[in-house]
Amino acid sequence: MKPSTPVAAIPLMTIVVAVLLQTHCVRGQTQAFDLAKLLPKTGTEPIWAVIDRNLPQVQELVTAARMECIQKLQLPRDQRPLGKVTNPSEKEKCLVECVLKKIKLMDADNKLNVGQVEKLTSLVTQDNKMAIAVSSSMAQACSRGISSKNPCEVAHLFNQCISRQLERNNVKLVW
Fold first, then answer.
1. Which end of the chain is less crowded, N or C, counting CB atoms within 10 A of the terminal residue's CB?
2. In sequence order, what are the beta bridge partners of 42?
3. C-alpha 147: how far from chain center
4. How far apart (Å, rounded) are the C-alpha atoms in residues 94 and 138?
C-alpha cells in the first residue's frame, strides 16, 4: 500500500479546483452568464425594468442607422435582421459594417469602440457602473481574436459576438 500524499505536496491550484468542483462553482461554458444576479437594483426598480424602459432609445438609433445603410447599399427595405444570421451575404456583412459605424460601435480602423459600448450601456441602464463594466469587458472579449482585414467581415464577426452576448443576457435588440 502506497503512503498517501501529504497535503503540503499538493499544488494549491489543485486543491482550489477540487473544492470548486465539489461545490459546483465551476460550470461549463455552455451555461449562460446571468447578468441579473450580478447587477444591483437601481433604487426600488429592478435593473431589467430600467433596461426594458430605456432600450427603445437605443433600438431607435439602430433602426435609423439600419434604414440609412439599407438605402446606401441599395438593399431591399424589408432586409432581414442580421443579429442571428450565421452565413450572411457579403452585402449583408457590409450592411452590418455600415450600421456599426453609423452608431459608432465600430471605428474607422475597424475596431470595436469600447467607449461607445460603455456610453450606450450607461444610457440603457441609467449609469449602472456594474453593467457598464460588464459590457465593456464583453466588448473587449469580442474584440480579441478578430484579425480579418476585410471591414465587412470584421463587422460580421463583431455582430455575431455582440448578438451572442445580448442573447445570453436576454437583451432584445434587433439589427
1. N
2. 45
3. 18
4. 23
Does pTM surpass 0.70?
no
Asked if the structure places residue 19 within a domain, the reply is no
Give 112's strand partners.
Answer: 106
Alpha-carbon dihedral sign for residues 102, 104, 56, 94: positive
Our count of domains for the chain comes to 1
- Which CATH number characterizes residue 141's domain? 1.10.238.20
Please give the DSSP secondary-structure letter assigned to residue 7: G
pLDDT digit string (tens) for 47-56?
667 777 777 8
For 51-75, how does the pLDDT look when each residue is reduced to its tens digit (9 = 90+)?
777 778 888 888 899 999 999 999 8
Asked if 96 and 156 count as a contact pair (C-beta separation under 8 A), the reply is yes
| 9: in domain | no
Position 70, amino acid: I
Residue 127: domain span: 41-168
Residue 124, CB-side half-sphere exposure with 13 Å CA sphere: 22
Gap between the Cα atoms of 113 and 136, Å rounded: 10
Assigned domain for 48 exists:
yes
User: Hey, what's the cell of 155?
Assistant: 463587422
Report which residue type is found at 69.
C
State yes or no: pLDDT of 122 exceeds 80. yes
**Residue at 55 is within a domain:** yes
